[in-house]
Specification:
single chain; 3-stranded antiparallel sheet; alpha+beta; 6-stranded mixed sheet; tt1808, chain A
Length: 198
Amino acid sequence: MSVASGSVRLTPDDLLSMPDGERFELVHGQLAELNLSGLSSLIAAEINRRLGNFAHDRGAGFVLQSDCGYQCFPADPLKVRRPDGSFVCAGRLTLADLEQGYLRLPPDLAVEVVSPRDTVYELETKVEEYLAAGVRLVWVVNPETRILEVHRLDGTVSKLHAIDELTGENVLPGFFCCVGDLFALGDFVDRSTSTGDE
């Protein structure tokens, strides 16, 4: 993520009014362009699909995509972050919350899928910000290493590999999937490409 430095400090309202504002976060009044890749987008979509289906079937809450911005950081009330996916438990959201531009309450779960240009510092910073804001679970998904890190509000961290099971813990009780299944679409693309080259 690259931060565009400048003398003019922007506000969340400024970001809302930008025609391409969904491509940016706001950090210290400066635009921070989101690092995107097709693979990270594909994996984020798969995670959001699985979470969304589970949450919908059980009335557990709401899954929001990367175009949803959160302005919920006590240390920096003007900061806007856009996780690749997020979940908010039922009963925490109102229509008024959804209509005000950015959500002012922290999600219960935030998902960050690593893109090629993301740095360790940027990802660690985001995780710490989410946890400080009260996010109960943060999933950091790395397509290259096929490792998914689970960060919890109590400070504990689990590192899951492709053969491990991912669960919703106390945020989405009953949700589970194999970590490797989250990367399956990427494998299918690889196979399709190699088959087409033969």
